Amino acid sequence: MGKVALGVAVGCAVVACGIAAVAVGRRARSRRGWGRAVALLKELEEGCATPVSRLRQVVDAMAVEMHAGLASDGGSKLKMLLTFVDSLPIGNEKGTYYALDLEGASFRVSKVELGGSRSMILKHQVELQVIPQDLMTGSTEGLFDYLATTLEHFVGREDKGCDDSDDKIKELGFTFPFPVKQLSVSSGTLVKWTKTFAIEDTIGKDVAQCLHEALTKRGVEMRVAALVNDTVGTLALGHYEDEDTVAAVIIGTGTNACYVERVDAIIKCQGLLTNSGYMVINMEWGNFWSSHLPRTPYDFDLDDDSPNQNDQGFEKLISGMYLGEIVRRVLLRMSQQSDIFGDSAHHLSTPFILSTPLMASMHEDDSPDLALVESVLTSVLKMPKVSFKARRLVVRVCDVVTQRAARLAAAGIVGILKKIGRDGSGGVASGRTRGKPRRTVVAIEGALYVSYPAFREYLNEAVAEILGEEVAPNVVLRVTGDGPGMGAALLAASHSLQR
User: Are strands 81-82 and 278-282 parallel, antiparallel or unpaired?
Assistant: First the structure.
């Protein structure tokens, strides 16, 4: 072999060795990158772990905080607000009633005809309206005039042709899902706006009176017979359909709970008297906090970046507003410490780009190649060509975050049952009747529970685990349909002056 040929051969060998070395290096870096991603997943799993022992600690903490909130205002993170609803619909309500359900950026008006026997709803008409953005930040008069105008038109259409439509003042149930200091069952002053509302001159005003004045100005003979929040409306409908319903929980974009409490247990209102001896308590449980709640660095960072830092701690762990965002933060950390998503993961830096519904769709993708996961990663997060192995990792992250949320929500529900003696733990109010566990129904609403099967299954399983095989079969978690609106109309009926 000549010197030239030998040189060429040696050069080719060097190049080949170099290429091989680069390939080996890339594979090694890829393995190291994948190892870092898997390590982050294991850390997340450990940080979000909710064994039954921990859930029972959360149950006990919830019950303790409920006691503290009933003992004094400010004694607990739980507000434990009086609603002045001392009786719930029992099925003998009769007549025609209206409801206005303010949901946030939209609202529903409805008309309900009740037949006077349990679960006998003869007719139910509903109309959905969107609130113009400028009215959410304008004036009190502008917002309530718009609500009253919609009600006027709705009543006019529904009552057209009815001979007795103007014989008496119409009764209205008003669902108002914002913090309110309740003054009576039919009145309450706004403490603060949430969501996207910011009408300063409404704060401190009686919102029922604001609506009444707007209706009167338009000549609509209608009275607010019940002012409630969405959880109380859900409880009312649940009790109307099943008299063993003692609590209601909403788990959607936000979360809250209410339940029926003995008046003598409300220490901060000693001397309070009701005909029934009971009162519905609005817990505002989104603000619940305990050191037993499992938090990860992603949760701490989310709280630091939120406009309500150190508030709504429970809500930030379990509600639909935040689950997708927690997953995004986990995936962002993985992209920063590994190359499993390639070089196009910069969109993961956008807060709230991954909504909880999209996260849920990825979590429940049952296609063989996880095509839906790939679609979300490509179209929403702009990360094309993510490997199947990495897509499986994404699904696992969604699962860990969802499972923690559902199991903590379950612990909160059992905490309520423990407080009212329906968890079978023993004592005077042990949830037993003549030695047998007492049947207990919890009404549930909200898209996270109703429309997310994996979340619902995790929650139901956790409730059964915490309660045990003897008590669990006697606790029923029941979905109500249109609880906030229908329940408000039912409460208007049960508290109507015509009765």
Answer: antiparallel
Dihedral angle computed from the Cα positions of residues 215, 221, 225 and 229, in that order, rounded to the nearest 10 degrees: -30
Torsion angles phi and psi, residue 424, rounded to 5 = 75, 20
Look at the block and give the residue holding tokens 């709970």.
Answer: 257
Q: Hey, which residues does 112 pair with through a beta bridge?
A: 97, 124
Using DSSP, how many helices (H) and how many strands (E) does the chain show?
A: 15, 15
Helices (H), 172-318: 207-217, 230-241, 297-305, 315-318
Rounded to whole angstroms, the Cα distance separating 302 from 297 reads 9
- What amino acid is encoded at 260 in this protein? V
CA dist list (Å): 261 to 80, 90, 135, 225: 10, 17, 37, 22
In the block, which residue shows the tokens 């410490």?
A: 337
Residue 287 and residue 81 in contact, taking contact as beta carbons nearer than 8 Å: no
Per-residue pLDDT tens digits of the chain, which is 499 residues long: 555 444 545 454 444 444 444 444 444 445 567 999 999 999 999 999 999 999 999 999 999 999 999 999 989 999 999 999 998 998 888 889 999 998 778 889 999 888 877 657 767 788 889 999 999 999 999 999 999 999 999 988 877 656 555 557 899 999 998 888 899 999 999 988 877 788 999 999 999 999 999 999 999 999 999 999 999 999 999 999 899 999 999 999 889 999 999 999 999 987 777 778 899 999 999 999 999 999 999 999 999 999 889 989 999 999 999 999 999 999 999 999 998 998 888 899 999 999 999 999 999 999 999 999 999 999 999 999 999 999 999 999 999 999 999 999 999 999 999 999 999 876 434 344 445 678 999 999 999 999 999 999 999 999 999 999 999 999 999 998 777 888 999 999 988 744 5
In this structure, are residues 254 and 319 in contact, taking their beta carbons and an 8 Å threshold? yes
User: What SS3 class is residue 159?
Assistant: coil
Which residues fall within 8 angstroms of residue 361, CB to CB, at 6 or more apart? 372, 376
Question: What would the two tokens of residue 134 be?
Answer: 């400028």
Is the CA virtual torsion 452, 455, 459, 465 positive or negative?
positive
Q: Are 392 and 38 in contact (CB under 8 A)?
A: no
Give CA–CA dist 140/182, Å, rounded. Answer: 19
In DSSP terms, 100 is beta-bridged to 109, 174
The secondary structure of residue 169, as a DSSP letter, is P
Long-range contacts for 371-380 (Cβ within 8 Å, ≥24 apart)? 377/341, 380/347, 380/353, 380/354
Position 416: which residue type? I
Closest CA to 159 of 222, 89, 226, 227: 222
Residue type, 175: T
Task: Name the nearest CA neighbour of 280 among 260, 250, 256.
Answer: 260
